[in-house]
Structures are given as structure tokens and as C-alpha cells.
Amino acid sequence: MLDPDYPTIKRGAPINAAEGLCAACTRHLHQAIVDMPRDYLDLETALTGIRDGLRQVVAGTPDPPVPISLTIEAAQAELLHEAQCWAESVAEVLGIDWDTQNAQRSRPGIVLDRAQRLLTSGLSAFLALRNVIHTGWTNGEWTILDRDGLDGALVLIDLHHRIRALTGQRRLVNHLPVPCPRCERLALGREDGDDTITCAACNRAYTWEEYEKLCTLLADRREIAA
User: Of 151, 119, 117, whose CA–CA distance to 132 is shortest?
Assistant: First the structure.
């Protein structure tokens, strides 16, 4: 998916449904789920800091307050929505009661804590989900989505990374559009300001020169194949 704040950067990496998740990606997914309540709290803390800073800036002036960061609020809403979508789908498979209407009336922390416990304990059922129907935003429009557990894994991992970047816990990661030469997964990434490229799947590191050579080789192969 494209980040609206960084439209030239494509985040996340396609997952081969036939292969499922590798061990490293499964660990990343588990951590992303475990961290959902904390991620929401970190966003709220960042938002509170922005509000406090704005109060200091505009105090005693006739100017209207500067709008609060919509990006942070959007990330909070997306996290809460996705957690409820996948928790509800897993709960249905496992025969566990999940009252969506009640969840919408509950405090976010309570909902995310329960969703975290349900998804971590039912991780296998989560990844095995197929053809579940959710609603969500696509290209700026609210629409019906036909998804599976691997889609959910990619969404939650990517969202976790974006929230960590928003709250200053990590630098922005630029995901690169070529497969890792070692494991052949689309998981190469480079943090802003860093010349080292690392594969999130197998942890193999490459220099920028090695990456450029890789791109050149791939381009040559495509020209020959064409």
C-alpha cells in the first residue's frame, strides 16, 4: 500500500499465499499483535504532546489553533478498525463471542487488549483465514474487502512499522521493489539516512553498491527475456 505522507514509497511486501509466512515473518506478526495496545498508547502520547505544544504556541494570540496531526489520528483509527476486523473473524472460527457493537462502545485500550489476546492465542486460525469480508478504505473510498489471514498479517505488520515511525521509535523504512538474492522474498528495506539495505526475512545485509548491481542484473535479465 502507498503511504499518503510518502506517496513515492510502497510499504510492505507481497506474501506468497502458497508458501505462507516464514518463521521470521511469523515472529514479526506476533510482535506486532502483542504491541497493539502499546502502539495505540504511544500514538495517544504523541498526540497529547502535539496538543500541549499547540496550546503553548497559540496562547494569548488571536490566531486559530493549528490542526492536530491527522496522520496520528488516522493511524489510531486504522489500528482499532483492523484489530476489530481480524479479532471478529478469528473469534467466529474459534466459536468465541465477539460483540462488535459492544466493542465499538468500549474504550480503545480494552478492545485492543482483548483483540491482542485473541489473535495471539489463535495465531494459526488467523493465518488460515480465507475469503473473509471486511470493510475499509481503498484509494480514498470506503468499500467491501475480500481478504485472508495473510492479508491481515501484512496489514498488521505494516501498520506496526508505520506507528513506530510516527512515534519516533524508528526511522522511516523505504521498502525496495526487488527480491532478496539470498531468500528471494520481497523484504528488502533501507532506513532513511542509512546506506545499508537489510532483508527483513533472512536478515541478510547489503551495501548500496551491491543493491545497485542487483538492480542492474535484474534489468538485464528482463531485457533478455523480453
Answer: 151
Please give the span between the terminal C-alpha atoms of the chain, in angstroms, as a whole number.
28
Cα–Cα distance for residue pair 109/130, rounded to 1 Å: 28
pLDDT tens for each residue of 30-56: 999 999 999 999 999 888 876 554 444
pTM: 0.63
Residues contacting 101, CB < 8 A, separation 6+: none
The pLDDT, as a whole number, for residue 167 is 85
Contact predicate 78/38, CB 8 Å:
no
HSE of 86 in the Cβ direction (CA atoms, 13 Å)?
35
How far is residue 155 from each of residues 5, 110, 138, 161, 197, measured CA to CA in Å? 17, 21, 13, 10, 22
CA distance linking residue 57 with residue 35, whole number of Å:
33
